[in-house]
Specification:
This protein is an alpha+beta fold. The protein has a single domain, classed as Beta Barrel (Porin).
Length: 158
C-alpha cells in the first residue's frame, strides 16, 4: 500500500513541477474548464484477487475548493460475485485534466459485512464544455485484499 501511495505522489509531483516550469504560458495551455461542482456517473468493472469480475455502477460528487483541490463523496455498487457497496469521501488533486484521489471509506457486503477501505485512484478527463468523459482506474485496499476497479465517469460540471 505504501508503494502505491508513493508512486501516485511521485507521478503527481513530477507533473506538477513540469506544469510549474511553464510559468506564464500555463493559462494559455489550460484546456480543462474549472467548475466548482461536479456530478458524475461511474460505470466499470471490479476485480478482486480471489473473486470474479463484477459490474460496478456508481455516483460521485466533488466540490472543488480551488483549481487544484477538491473533496466529495462517492457511492458505488458492484454486482455479481463481489456484491458490495463502497461509500467514500475522496480528496482529490487536479493537474489540468489529470485527477489523483485518495478516498477513505467503507465496503459493505453480505459476505464479510462492513470493512474500512482506502481507495487510490486516477483519471484523465476529456473536456466537452460543462460535460466530461474520464477513464478511471482505482485500487481499493480492504482488510489486506486488493480490488482493482477500471471504468469511466461521465459527468457534468456546474
Amino acid at each position: 500500500m505504501r508503494s502505491v501511495l508513493l508512486g501516485l505522489l511521485l507521478v503527481a509531483a513530477s507533473l506538477q513541477s513540469a506544469t510549474a516550469s511553464e510559468g506564464g504560458h500555463e493559462e494559455s495551455h489550460e484546456a480543462h474548464h474549472f467548475h466548482p461542482n461536479f456530478v458524475g456517473l461511474f460505470v466499470g468493472v471490479a476485480r478482486e484477487d480471489r473473486r470474479d469480475n463484477g459490474l460496478a455502477v456508481g455516483l460521485e460528487y466533488e466540490r472543488r475548493l480551488n483549481k487544484s483541490f477538491g473533496i466529495g463523496g462517492l457511492a458505488e455498487y458492484t454486482f455479481g460475485d463481489l456484491d458490495v457497496w463502497v461509500v467514500g469521501v475522496p480528496f482529490s488533486w487536479h493537474i489540468d485534466n489529470l485527477k489523483l484521489a485518495v478516498a477513505p471509506g467503507i465496503e459493505n457486503g453480505d459476505e464479510r459485512g462492513s470493512e474500512f477501505l482506502v481507495r487510490f485512484g486516477g483519471e484523465y478527463a476529456f473536456d466537452m464544455g460543462t460535460w466530461e468523459l474520464a477513464p478511471q482506474i482505482d485500487i481499493d485496499i480492504v482488510d489486506g485484499d486488493t480490488v482493482f476497479v477500471l471504468g469511466a465517469v461521465f459527468g457534468f460540471g456546474f
